[in-house]
Write a structure and sequence with these properties.
602 residues; alpha+beta; Rossmann fold; D-amino Acid Aminotransferase, Chain A, domain 1; seven-stranded antiparallel beta sheet; 20 helices; 22 strands; 18% strand; globular
Amino acid sequence: MPKRTDIHKVLVIGSGPIVIGQAAEFDYSGTQACLALREEGYEVVLINSNPATIMTDTDIADKVYMEPLNLEYVARIIRHERPDAILPSLGGQTGLNLAVQLAKKGVLQECDVEILGTSFEAIERAEDRELFKDLCESLGEPVLPSEIANTLEEGLQAARDIGYPVVLRPAFTLGGTGGGFADDEEECELMLKNALALSPVHQVLVEKSIKGYKEIEYEVMRDANDTAITICNMENIDPVGIHTGDSVVVAPSQTLTNKEYHMLRDSALKIIRELKIEGGCNVQFALDPLSFQYYLIEVNPRVSRSSALASKASGYPIARVSAKISVGMHLDEIQIANTPASFEPTLDYVVTKIARFPFDKFADANNSLNTQMKATGEVMAIGRTMEESLLKAIRSLETGVCHLYNKKFDTYSADELLEYIKIGTDDRLFAIAQLIRLGVDLNMIYNDTKIDMFFLDKFKNITDFEQTLKSNIGDVETLKDAKKMGVSDKYIGQVWGMTEAEVFNLRKANKIFPVYKMIDTCASEFDSYVPYFYSTYEQENESVVSDKKKIIVLGSGPIRIGQGVEFDYSTVHAIWSIRDAGYEAIIVNNNPETVSTDYTTS
């Protein structure tokens, strides 16, 4: 079905200020939505209160309102602007909650405004814990034993009925706010008070804990024609118990068997079809590593930080496609590079995402991780192997480490390290690597962390190679192998007693340079050219170098305290100016949440 002609003006709701759990990813999705709608000829009115975003730039929407994102102000703007429709699913939980309020207060009905994309009924069924449980049970999809609580007494009784440990999940909050694990009644009482206070509907789901299961996510997309595809599936290296925004995540999944992959894919597609979601959606699963038992954790009927990551990991612009679906277009009518949007992306590389935390600024803060997000931002790295991808991501973090090694753990004994890794922390990866260096059996590490043996083997490959480096100082073949594995010049220099520049010169003398591979959604199955690249040490170079004069703009990396989305804003403006002046503009950045890392920008 072609786009709708009965609507002309669309209101897009932004996500407001950056808070932990809600960062640049919603500027990215909101910007894509505005541009996609304008591309199709609609007038776009945007409301957002964050001046650091590209979304609030006058080049993005036809009209921008810098106003508080609350019921009173948005209602006032709707009455003044009289839009035909509202698109709330690209502004995070803020946009979604506001749209629900506007509908319940009758503002949308009064001004004859319809919601685009996913319906309120679908939003409620996905977000309301009780309705979601009923939905899963009606489809025969497994959900955890759980009870809804609206008061402290109800919550404590539910926990007793289910049996400790339990996990608390407040309804209609973002980034797991107010949730967490309770091992006994005392912990549960403290946490319940907070969770009930933070939930806008004073409702908390008390659920059986399945800490230690694998956490798997699917990014799925559906149109009004009921065409549904999976864009990308992702696997958390950390098991269930740590918020996916804080976990180390790889795409595509690395440890699933074919049966497990398709079992979860079928479930995700069944859910999105039953909810009748139109646009992008994120489905999270817990999978028992010792059987084929799985549980649905939750469904986000909106774009999320995971969908920004999936967009960049696959080269499939989820928010842009979601916006076009919302105005009636079907997936087969929307083009992405050389393929229709109904074509499922294929990844012939490994993507690793590592979260960036504020603990360097708040050294005394508790750095343990749970179901409530603590990360301020994240980095994404791409390689041909798990090891290369992981090592590139580690040194993108800008935390003073350049390898899977942190000198903090040099003085720890094996027993102290085994105790340390029992709880997920921002630096657990480095503690695990140190244990492997000390010769501790991988099974002991698995028992304490429930991190899959596949990943522990990959960490061991990296630590084993350190010995190869030490015993082959200055050897050119070893240098080639190190670069293929993703080891930095800086770390090689530390082992070989050379400076970073000397290692680079040794590479230069022996012509050991990276080539640039393309992310094109179709693993080069079709002839398509997408100007979106990652470096790796192989033979074939896929980046075509033009004769034009070029300018490189260096991005600002992960969002952290003191460095937010404002630098993405300036990066994009620099790119626009460079292109207007007739030069070719090139961006180098590692933050998947940003507008600058979208290949349509530069």
